[in-house]
Specification:
Number of helices of chain B: 17
Structural class of chain A: alpha/beta
Largest interface: A-B, 19 and 26 residues
Shape of chain B: globular
CATH architecture of the largest domain in chain B: Alpha-Beta Barrel
CATH topology of the largest domain in chain B: 7-stranded beta/alpha barrel
CATH topology of the largest domain in chain A: Rossmann fold
Helix content of chain B: 40-55%
Order of helices and strands of chain B: EHEHHEHEHEHEEHHEHEHEHHHHHHH
Radius of gyration of chain B: 21 Å
Oligomer: heterodimer
Radius of gyration of chain A: 21 Å
CATH class of the largest domain in chain B: Alpha Beta
Number of domains of chain A: 2
CATH superfamily of the largest domain in chain A: Glycogen Phosphorylase B
Largest sheet of chain B: 5 strands, parallel
Number of helices of chain A: 15
Strand order of the largest sheet of chain A: 11-10-9-12-13-14
Number of strands of chain A: 14
Distance between the termini of chain A: 18 Å
Order of helices and strands of chain A: HEEEEHEHEHHEHEHHEHEHEHEHEEHHH
Largest sheet of chain A: 6 strands, parallel
Distance between the termini of chain B: 63 Å
Number of strands of chain B: 10
CATH class of the largest domain in chain A: Alpha Beta
Strand content of chain B: 5-15%
Number of domains of chain B: 2
Amino acid sequence: MLGWELPPHNSGGLGVACLNLSKSLSKFGTSIDFVVPYRAEHKNIKFMNVLSASNLNPLFRFGAGAYASANATLPFSLNFSASPSSDQISIREIQKSYIEFVENYLKEYKPDVVHAHDWLTFEAGMLAKKNYGIPLIAHVHATEFDRAGGQSGSPLVEEIEREGLLMADKIFAVSNATREIIHKKYDIPLEKIDVVYNSLGEDFINSLYSFDDSEHVYINLLKENGFCIVSTVGRFTIQKGLTHLLHAAAKAIHKNPKLVFILAGDGEEKSELISLAAELGISRNVIFTGFIRGKNLRDIYSFSDIFVMSSVSEPFGLTALEAAHHGDALILTKQSGVSEILKSAFKYDFWDEDKLANEILAIAASPALRKTLQTNIKNEYSKISWDDIAKQCLDVYNKLRKHN
Amino acid sequence: MKNLCLYLHIHQPFRYRQYSIFDVGKSENYFFDPNYNSKQSNERIFKKVSEKSYRPTFSLLEKKLKEEKNFKFSLSITGTWLDQAEMWEPDLITRLQNMIKSGRVEIVGETYYHSMSFFYDEAEFEAQIRLHQEKIKALFKKSPKVFRNTEFAYNDNLGKTIEKLGFEACLVEGWDKVLGWRSANYVYSAAGTKSLKLLPKNYRLSDDIAFRFSDKNWNEWPLTVEKYKAWLNNAFLDGEVVNLFMDFETFGEHQWRETGIFDFMNRLISDWANDSGCSFLTVSEAAALKPVGILSFPETVTWADTERDLSAWIGNSLQDESMKRLYSLRNKVLEKSKSDKSLLEDFRRLTTSDHAYYMCTKYWNDGDVHAYFSAYDSPYDAFLFFQNILRSLEYRLSQ
């Protein structure tokens, strides 16, 4: 398995998905060597071997921005003085040592299948396929098209992505939407692409977390005064469509001032969003929490009434499942993969600010609607488990092995 | 007689800490960062500036008052500075008291919290002036007669208001657009008032010291006492008083000791004090000179930036939202403050103009003085923490 991160050294959904998938695969007897580009302890991972491709600190695997393919050709300067060997390190250099590591590994070990996650590891995957004929699965959690938010991405990244997809024996896409993008953008035949959805991890579902609303007196006060809490969680990048969300928020607040929007996250769009909220005159209805995880994040899901996923393009969108788990009514863009598997949710096109405003107002105004959405989504969000997904992957592994 | 009026402004705000939304309802500590080394640690900043500027400059002024019987100057000291000095370096207050006892140091009136309250709420403006007067009376047994508004923000209406409050004169920016062909080196009457006097700052000669002194790209660098005195003499070809108004931190903080700023001032003061045609005046002595004309400020003029307007404090939507929301709480705060004393103090500390200044975006990308003097990573961060504190105030008001 070729990956780029694992919890707790992850900055988003990629690491979580890799961990949950590997865990379920190992349950069914798969033995996994998982390569990461950095050196760190993964104390809680006993079911597979985690191999470090370099001595890099996990903080530096992307540099400034998580998954920032825009930095692919530029050496980015590091904010931390504790950098490994030099002050300047590019993601290409990290990938180079990653490939070298995989090359050396393959001299000794010959896995049955190489499962590579996202463009970051595709070059290393192709090497295994080319030099040793090992079957390659390219797992696409996001395409360069998604990361660029509908604009043109990095040509270099697109090229690597294209080559990896062409050379792969099988492609896993996290949603139908992603499958379509791969087909359209890279001319890959649809039969080569399987949809492999994500799910919530058992850790998340079974954890001992419990919500104590007495810790959030300010939010309680708002609720007592009839406020409806709308939240969204994610990196503040163009991909997430948050400027549309704020415009819709302004429209909704104009009709119903008792709405509070919580924007949880951080990213390059932060300043722009803060300015926009002020320009729209809705700063007092918008709360920015900064980057959060763990208990704080779950608390936000818990005290929210509505969760919005406003992404312009979202290959899957695990946060929607997390929000559903904590009982939120969901509003999702049709451009999100997760909207393919959830029925009891409002859906809109990311640009349709009026529609989003209407849906928020409707849920805020009708306790009955809110309750129905919240109850029904609870029966849906856990329909697909990681065990199901692992079985799906194993079938493909076995076919490729025999084929070989 | 060539009259030199030296006035220094001494101030520190209570910077608010990185107050998170998760603190609302749990913590009412906005201004005291538990981490001494943090960017917003007021105690650390006060002590740093004290060592670099307050202490050496006090020493210089004390020495000059002792050596030169003709030397006089004026000071404005904000309430927030006095509060911090009392907390962390009370001997600075004692030293100030001793200097003021000499009778040659005059204190200028202003808003206790260094606020822009005049532009939001006149009642609050008056209340803060009264608070400052009480504090000055208690510590120094003086009643200021001359006023300076925060950042020198002045307009004709403000003149009327402070005259009503009993002030005889006001310090203003000697801005060319207001003066026109007239010289800054005279006393003027304030338009629309009965007898309020205006003392315009000679910003060129002031800024030669305050901003340009150590600038090696300046074609007059290095500035010598001889050269500067020649410029002063020149100024008196058309004038009776040269008003040198500047930040106290000019000495040691904006212009470091290594630039020779202390030696320069040491020599300049002695030179001027011992020249028979020259004298020092405090601000009220200068205001006693006969006005030569009327100055009108239909628009607000400040002493900041090249625009000399309010745009650094009231210029963008972040500042607008924050300040309007803050001032809208005033009546409720006053009412509630009977049972919650600290609430009013917290409210007033938030009116300090520095907070709005940190939210200024107009030169943000150039990384200029706005960035240099900010306690936050960006104007947007400053805005967020401020909003969270406002939420906390609103929460307390609801209890």
